[in-house]
Amino acid sequence: MLRALRLTAALAFFGAISMPSLAADSTLTIGRAVSTTAMDPGFLREAATIVDNIFDTLVMRDTDMKLMPGLAASWKAVDDTTWDFTLRPGVRFHNGEPMDAAAVKFTLDRVLDPAAKSPTVSYIRTIDSVEFVDPLTVRIKTKGPDPLLPTRMSRYPAYIVPPKYIAQVGNAEFARKPVGTGPYRFVEFVPDRYVVLEANKEYWRGPPSIGRVVWKPIPDDTARVTSLLTGEVDMIETVPVDLAPMLQQNPDTALVQVKNGGLTIYLGLVTNVKPLDNVKVRQALNLAIDRKGIVENILHGMATATGTQVGVADFGYAGTPVPAYDPKRAKELLTEAGLKDGFSIKMQATHRYLKDGDVAQAIAQEFEEIGVKAELETLDWSVYVQQVPRKGPIFMLGWGSTQTLDADAALYAIMHSGEPYSTVSDPDLDRLLDESRRTIDPAARAKVFAEIQKVASETVPLLTLYQEDSLYGRRKNVGFAGRPDARIPVFDIKLQ
Predict the structure, then answer these.
(1) How far apart are CA 113 and CA 51, in angstroms?
(2) For residue 23, what pLDDT band results from cuts at 50, 70 and 90?
(3) Domains with residue ranges and CATH for the chain
């Protein structure tokens, strides 16, 4: 009721004033839940939604999620550890700089450089070297057999960037004024207000049908829905679950729901900090959470409770059961760990995911029921996203593997010790995760991933909660149906 009243008031407010419109006939305005902080695809600490429209990768995915040529017209495995990519001729960056093998080598070397400390280097850490063969041929050698190398070239941090421009302006300026080869050119970035892109009429796939895209951060859920209902924006990301029915019932708007198309939400644990270094404590916390109740009562069924970080659509999904909700057994485990009277611990959350504040509060209350006092701190996303890894020692984060559809992306970066986003240190998991990257045979890889998920369910290196559905709102004239890989490719959207 409170949310409905807020929405009514907001609609009255928007109706009472004259809003300056950024839209034109060929403009698509998209409301986002979070502000953009930077647009350097090699060093992203946020979703690649905007940079995905400015840059291209060597390999792309079609609407059926099958790999297809991108900036690379073709690729082939020379041997178990060597891949040759033949580049598409004649492609140029938005500033006129040629996209060639030198640019590809520069892009990957830049991320792999240990001194650069790229937060997403985990995805391409299997690469040993990148060689310039000729202007249209680049050779990538891996440290061992890597069947996912083409897939790794289809997502960040492998968006190809212009070496001369970056040398000229520096990394910081590049992150504020990016130059890519993609369907849209950067125009303007005003932090906390908007990012403006315009169509690249010389795009190698042909000119986009939409001439201009404006991305506006609207963090407040009610205001974001209101902006769509009033026509201030044409689309919104991250529709709040309790306001979704309003978009379904309004004749001018529609709800786009992609089942299991969103992030898998988990509570990270700094496992070398007491008492989280005790497996029985981690198991107790795991059993204290009523995941199915959270999904049903807080998220209104627009997520799926899960016992694994691996998505249902991912290769390597093992169907790990959802952990039982058993506070009685949780208390027994704390007693066995020598913590009969419980303990206090700091827990961090943010405003980025579906009803994450309510979920964090609910979990804190469930922890308190077993004697664990969670000192909950909720931070703004722009602050939260800068600390990698988080110090926690308990923290909420969302992780996705939708852009690779493989368990490697779901597990390695957040469970292998020493990776930027990982707070886990488990030699057994490290061994298995390394083995998964050396294994070529699909059946053998699937067995390794199953073993990883089994070990994780027993040792509880983190607390997996649920996988969100992707929820978007759109005006009826916007042709967008959502994608399993959570991308918003404006090139493929049509205004009717």
Answers:
(1) 21
(2) very low
(3) 2-33+183-259+470-495 (3.40.190.10), 59-166 (3.90.76.10), 264-468 (3.10.105.10)
Bond before 145 cis per omega within 30 degrees = no
**pLDDT, tens digit, for every residue of 163-221?**
999 999 999 999 999 999 999 999 999 999 999 999 999 999 999 999 999 999 999 99
Q: How confident is the model at residue 384, as a pLDDT?
A: 87
The first and second tokens of residue 444, run together, are: 């053998």
Give residue for tokens 């974001």: 224
Nearest alpha carbon to residue 284 among 216, 205, 220, 338 = 338
Cα distances (Å, whole numbers) of residue 255 to 11, 36, 50, 232, 351: 19, 24, 21, 17, 21
Query: Can you state the angle between helices 221-229 and 2-16, rounded to 10 degrees?
Result: 50
pLDDT in tens, 293-316: 999 999 999 999 999 999 998 999
Pair 320, 314: CB distance under 8 Å: no
What is the C-alpha separation between 286 and 228, in angstroms, rounded?
38
The candidate with the shortest Cα–Cα distance to 359, out of 263, 294, 449, is 294
List of residues 6+ apart from 333 with CB closer than 8 A: 280, 281, 283, 284, 287
What DSSP assignment string belongs to 161-200?
--HHHHHHH-HHHHHHS---SSSEEEEEEETTTEEEEEE-
The rounded distance, in Å, linking the Cα atoms of 265 and 178 is 30
Most confident by average pLDDT, 67-71, 388-392, 400-404: 67-71
Q: Is the pTM of this model over 0.85?
A: no
CA-to-CA distance for 23 and 288, rounded, in angstroms?
48
User: Closest Cα partner for 223 from 491, 10, 465, 442?
Assistant: 10
* Contact between residue 3 and residue 242 where contact means Cβ atoms under 8 Å apart: yes
